[in-house]
Amino acid sequence: MKQIYVGGRWVDGNSGETMPVFDPATEEILAHVPRGTATDVARAVEAANTAFEEWRWVPGVEKAEMMHEAARKLRTHADEIVRLLTLEQGKPIPEHEEEVEWVVGTFDYYAGLARTYRGRLLAPADRSQFNFVMKEPLGVAACIVPFNYPLLLMAWKVAPALAAGNTVVVKPAEQTPLATLRLAELAFDHFPAGVINVITGTGAEVGEPLVVHPDVPLIAFTGSTAVGQRIARLAADRMKRTHLELGGKDAFVIAPDADVESAIEAVSYAALLNAGQVCTATERVYVPQFMHDAFSAGMADYVQGLRLGPGIESTTDVGPMADPKYRSKVETHVADAVGKGARVLAGGKRPKSLERGYYYEPTVLVNVNHEMTCMRVETFGPTIPIMAYRDFDEAIALVNDSDFGLGAVCRTNDARLAKRFFEEVRAGTIWINDPLTDHYGGPFGGMKMSGNARELGEEGLESFVETKHVHWDFDDTPKDFWYPYGR
Ligand code: NAD
Asked: 290 with 338, same domain?
């Protein structure tokens, strides 16, 4: 039985109860992890709080060295971690290799910032004065992580939090705690006790006690908009800092000048990566009217050629979904669309050839419109709804006709259209031609219902610091604007 990581030690959960972790490709149980409780949360927060009083004063260069060491250790054990991630999460091995490499890079990137990041100097208003802005840690950061990129989204919180001088309590998703626990064992053991803590369990029993704990001033959360809204409400009671990375409904616009064949490949990657379980997965495709039929037919052919199977097999292009409840949501969205007049050109069902596992076929839908759930609510599955547009004005209006604003893609080499797209579309990341590519220095996050924060880049540190202005005057004689007036 696994244990939780509290105060630098592996300990049993307080309740003694466990939760199964499933392999989504086989539906078999991989392991059991402790079902944490509020008591475990209290222990972890106490450990993190104690550690904070030391960690915050550790010089940046020393913090940086420990973070580089975590990156080095992870790289040494990458094969084992990739395998474990693939078993519990489901997406194909190359996607997990990329995820692990990104985690390594994230620790290295924020280690670099940890060396020097502290604030800035201001030009004073008077010769005798000295003004500077200090960036200070807040304390214990709760890092609550979803199932789709278990280590990456953990690293995007933990690395900046540590670099800024905070300590952390990590709560992995119910579906995917194993790689996080193993990572803590292999790569975090050299940090001072209590700087990093990991507690497994449910959102209600571990996540929420973390959110409301009075000694947790900062909640860094990636997950669904519904849970993000709940966290924001709970956090408001104590004016806690929230860093919320939420759902999306990303659009992909094919401009009139785009090449159809390469656009099909680009959309397929953007929509089907991780079986569509990417917050910035393409969930709506808009094509010029004249291109619609050729594009849709080509898309249907293309996705039918992709190989569905366990992520652990090297021949797999698209793995299972991570949980049967996510597959049921996809089925509901497809049924709603078909009920309202959409046509299924490919997929639209579970594969007959795979009896076990939470698979769903890559699905191409046409005749869709914005009255359908699949064009408005996050599907988070392998669906590609395609809609025709008359002109670029309409394309941009359709993209912006959404409650979400996480990312958006445009495929074009027409500079005027590209400029219109990145200026007029309301989304946190705009990709011209190369969808879903991240950049360590490029902030990632959403507008509207997609969240209130940014991860990566220097902006990725902002949620994890308090800002303090210090005004220092070297002249201690009374000021002539003090009482009595008219001095
Ligand atoms: P989820 O909201 O169900 O769960 C996310 C995490 O929150 C899990 O660890 C869960 O246990 C925990 N949780 C659940 N209820 C909680 C509560 N009341 N209090 C505290 N914690 C609670 O999300 P999911 O299904 O695991 O992940 C999919 C969602 O994540 C999608 O909506 C996707 O768009 C979003 N996501 C967003 C980004 C981004 O950067 N914007 C990235 C990846 C995923």
From this structure: yes
How many CB atoms within 10 Å of residue 280?
Answer: 23
Question: Are 172 and 158 part of one and the same domain?
Answer: yes
SS3 helix, strand, coil % of the chain, rounded to 5?
40, 20, 40
Top mutation candidate among 224, 283, 321, 403 for ligand 1, by most atoms within 8 Å of CB: 224
pLDDT < 50 stretches in the chain: none
CB 218 within 8 A of CB 159: no
How crowded is residue 416: how many other Cβ atoms within 10 Å of its Cβ?
A: 9
CB burial class (10 A; 0-12, 13-18, 19+) of residue 391? exposed
The answer on 345 and 200 residing in a single domain is: no
| pLDDT for the residue 402 | 98
The dihedral over CA atoms of 308, 255, 408, 264, expressed in degrees to the nearest 10, equals 10
Ligand 1 midpoint to CA 177 (Å): 13
Both 173 and 43 in a single domain? Answer: yes
Q: Give the tens place of pLDDT for each residue, 345-359.
A: 999 999 999 999 999
**Is position 122 within any domain?**
yes
Q: Which helix (H) or strand (E) holds 92?
A: none
What is the count of structural domains for the chain?
A: 2
pLDDT of res. 79 = 98
CB atoms inside a 10 Å sphere around CB 485: 7
Looking at the structure, tell me whether residues 254 and 394 fall in a common domain. Answer: yes
Asked if 407 contacts 419 with a C-beta cutoff of 8 angstroms, the reply is no
Contact present, 143 and 171 (Cβ < 8 Å): yes
Are residues 85 and 164 both part of a single domain?
yes
CA distance 117 to 421: 34
Q: Does the pTM exceed 0.90?
A: yes
Q: Which residues have a Cβ under 8 Å from the Cβ of 391 and sit 6 or more positions away? A: none
Interacting residues of 184 by C-beta distance below 8 A, sequence separation 6+:
5, 170, 196, 198
CA–centroid distance, residue 145 to ligand 1 (Å): 6
- Identify whether 487 is part of a domain: no
Which domain range does residue 386 map to? 250-432
HSE, CB side, 13 Å, CA atoms: give it for residue 481. 0
pLDDT, residue 486, reads 83
Q: Which sequence positions are flagged as catalytic?
A: 245, 279
CA distance 286 to 395: 7
Q: Is the dihedral of CA 370, 372, 376, 382 positive or negative?
A: negative
Tell me the β-bridge partners of 287. 388
Residue 235 in tokens = 């956090």
Co-location of 125 and 190 in the same domain: yes
Spacing, Cα 400 to ligand 1 middle (Å): 24
